[in-house]
Amino acid sequence: MASNTTMIFPLMLIRCAGLPSQWLDDLAAEWNDENLSEPASTEAVQAAFDAALLLLPESPLRSAVYNARKDFFQKKKMPGAAFFRQVNTARALPEITQLLERLAVLKEIRDAQNGFFKRYDDALKANYALLQGAAREETLRRALLFASHDLLERLPAFAEKPLEQFTKKDRQTALSLLRYLTRAAAKTSPLSRFTTISLQKIGGQADESEAPFFQKSQVTPNVALLPAIYEVLLRERAFYRALSLRLNPCVEDEKQKNWLYFDGEQESFQQMGEHPVADLVVKILLENGRKWPFVKLLHRLGEEVDADPAQLQSLVFELVDYGLLEWDLPEKGLSSGWCGSLYHFLGFLPEQPPVVVEAAALLQWLRTAARTLPFQPAGEAQETQREAVLVAKTFFEKYGSAMPPIAPEQIFFEDVADSAESAVPENVIRALANDLAKCWQERDIQAMPAFRSQLFSFAEKILAEGETIDFLEFSKKFLGKRKDNPANRTGLRSLPPTKIGALLQVFRDETGAFRAVVNGLFPGGGKLMARWLHLFPAEAGTALRDWNDAIPFPWQGWSNANFQPAISKKVICVPDGRTAGLPGGQEILLTNLALQREEDFLQLIDKESNDAVLLTDLGLEAPETRPPVMQVLWHLGVPCVSLESLLSERKWSQGAGDWHVADRVEFGSLILARKAWRLGDELVENWLSEKSDANFFQRVRAELPTIGIFRQFFVRSIQEKPQYFDLDSPVSILLFAKILRQRKSPLILTEMLPRAHQNVIQKNGFRVAEFVLELVPRLF
User: Fold this and answer.
1) What share of the chain is helix, strand, coil (3-state, %, to 5)?
2) What's phi and psi for 477, nearest 5 deg?
3) Which residues of 93-132 are buried (b: 16+ CB within 10 A; e: fewer)?
4) Which residues contact 423 (CB under 8 A, 6 or more apart)?
5) CA gap 87, 77 in Å, rounded
6) Distinct helix (H) and strand (E) counts, the chain
């Protein structure tokens, strides 16, 4: 390999906006920006009236000037034609000349304003008409099936409503629709048809072996139903007698019965003293690879324990309730085929009582609906979603369980693969990756989330260099004293990542050179790609397994966002864990993990092999959604990789008014942070005090460019995702005003980069796209 290059994963995922960028331009209107000030001109006219009255003696002319001044002040009324005929006779007087000139200027301004208000009204109506046209589009309606039924139901009436009859409710519908449409055209949020996915070889065009030419939709039932279905089935003898039981991965022998337990809501450390039957159960499972069929376990207990079979079964169930034992469930819920997998398992059970039959019927109903949805008209598909909720709810109610709180929009999820023509040469991708690797190497800070900082500063207190502590013991100590451990700065760091992933928005700048905005960084090993592998040929999974050298994080919630294939020979076994390793791989028990402090870093190790344990999280849920001990495991095992790692603290400079600005942050061909502005409350409130929407539109169009914000920009707050705005679109600025009024935290405005014409993906026009790359973060 040539010097000063980095290794790159040979495939890149492309997340592409559902609408072309041109759609954003269709919302814009042309404007003549006359920066004429009516208030200043009004004051000048008033001064000219006063000067003329001081000069003129009592006369019909003075009376005419006086009456005109009175009407101007009190009624805001411009003088009429009779006034001008009368005062024109006195044009020789400088004060009269000045008055006439200032009245002429004011009239010009007011005429321009009246013209502006008409243009604004026409442009707003054109915006509404464009949104009405979009509301009739089947593609949009299908996307909203998985986003908002409320909006979907409002669209038919909205689309046909005459503009002159628009009500407040119609205008609210327009703004709601605008949010979704601008997200589909300006962002790459992974949401149904609003964003599509393609996979491409670096240096090659997408073809049938890498990404489909035609749009491929796969609809999957919400896996959050699965634990609720198991809750029902585990009460049924025919089901649980077909399962195996496994020993909690924290238990090593019958004499040491301390373990971690998570019941779906609460996590706790459990312990049990000497207990003859429990000790025997542990011994039997340890003799049989920590897992044994439930029926065989009961039979063995019946041979060795003098007790009634019902008593023994009850005891085993108690051990499950305590978390000492866990059911080895037939379907783990980490693949898009979870519904079919459990359906087939139930179909092969020797006994078929009603609950098993009806659970299988529910699963089959959901599978059939999922296969049918992509081919149904939007209205029929919406009814299918509602019926799915009703069918599931009926099943759970019949068997005394609660239906998970799932809305019709979320009873199914849709993934859409589509081809995308990338015009980015291989050498450009490699150059961007090289710049990113160099930037990573040269970073001078290591940003840590607060939780990780707490962990590391606590470890620094209790561990000397070279010392090791059992992971579970450390977790128990830390969590017991977490409130007493502030997130102090520490000299300790995590093990560096062997691979990193990046979300890049590649574009061509004004000179034609390729550049990229870094939208995000994450630990490498397959995150993002793993989630959508089921849409692509098996070769992609093989490539990912060959690339990955970390162990997938073992605890994932019941969410479609966490779908992932087995890609590693090693797997960490944790309570309630569901990730699987490749056949013939190695299992590392949670109880065999330890935390080791070296000179300036912490690392997890496998106590049996003394090997370092490096994790990668293939799920898309945030770490804080995990139980507390699993959060500790995440922060100690998953390398600290984020865009903040490349950025020092943003420097905000005071602007000329009530605003601050932070410049772009660049490294080579990369933009690490877009230029941003922070608006003060006083400035915002002044804008919002304008007497009409048109006046607000005119004012922000005049004032935002003076601070460096031009036509297209984004606004974000702590709670919300960035929202696109266009100063040339009245309906867009109506939404801007609404967000300003609703703000509960400071708003950050950012430049739009890349701009629409700078995008590099063509699909019926240029489209916003993110390239998901993985690389080794060092140069060779």
Assistant:
1) 45, 20, 35
2) -65, -45
3) eebbebbbebbeebeebeeebeebeebbeebbebbbebbb
4) 760, 761, 762
5) 17
6) 24, 32
Closest among 697, 704, 684 to 752, alpha carbons compared: 704
Q: Find all residues with CB under 8 Å of 621, minimum gap 6, and list them.
A: 556, 557, 559, 561, 562
Amino acid at 44: A
Cβ–Cβ under 8 Å, residues 221 and 412? yes
Domain boundaries, the chain: 38-113, 217-227+333-417, 244-328, 449-486+525-640, 650-773
Among 229, 245, 250, which Cα is nearest to 285's?
245
Indicate the SS3 state at residue 107.
Answer: helix
Q: Which of 3-12, 35-44, 555-564, 698-707 has the lowest mean pLDDT?
A: 35-44
Please give the pLDDT value at position 197.
92
Count of residues in the chain? 780
- Both structure tokens of 467: 């010392």
Closest CA to 638 of 617, 653, 659: 617
pLDDT tens for residues 210-246? 444 467 889 999 999 999 999 999 999 999 999 999 9
pLDDT confidence of residue 266:
87
State the pTM of this model.
0.88
CA distance from start to end of the chain? 8
Distance CA 499, CA 483 (A): 34
- Tokens for 148? 């908002």
Distances (CA, A) of 20 to 215, 519, 553: 16, 20, 37
Sign of CA dihedral 504, 505, 509, 512: positive
Query: Is there a contact between 211 and 407 (Cβ–Cβ < 8 Å)?
Result: no
Q: Inform me whether the pLDDT recorded for 552 exceeds 50.
A: yes
Question: CA dist 17 to 195, 368, 600, 620, Å?
Answer: 5, 29, 43, 19
Q: Are 596 and 254 in contact (CB under 8 A)?
A: no
Closest CA to 223 of 124, 123, 340: 340
Query: For position 212, what pLDDT does the model report?
Result: 42
- Cα–Cα distance, 485 to 455 (Å, whole number): 8
Query: What is the overall mean pLDDT for the chain?
Result: 91
